[in-house]
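User:
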Amino acid sequence: MLWDLDTELYRRTWAPTLESAAGQLGLRILGPFEVRHVGDLDDAFTSMKEARAQAVLVSAASVIAPNAKLIGELGIRHRLPIMSAFKEFPQAGTLISYGPNIAAIYQRAAAFVGKILAGSKPSDLPVENPTTYDLVINLKTANALGLMIPLTLQAQADEVIE
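Assistant: Predicted structure:
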């Protein structure tokens, strides 16, 4: 887990879900490997390799998100496939993403703003979860890592980068 937020936030929110899912799959979560500055990224990847990480899940906050291209390059250099929740990551060079479609979330937010401006009380409006998710696969990165992505998974993808 490559992380650029508060460690306590990770322990309270992400860790329990990740540990539960990992246990069901017979996997072990390493980290989080924390970065506070872009200069920390190379050391974090070196530490992940030394810890024998086999893949990386990235958060997407202040350090990681604007450095998706560098993270993709480091993933290839260190032979670590990288997954994220946002399509901008594989578009910048990481392996794969699956997560909410941000444009659709913004469209729904605009509809809520319209309702509020028309007089609705925010507390009367329902809370909504995302309804549109994107699966994006970067085959150039998969090839650089020596990975074969099954055609069945490629067929399900919203975007395949070749």
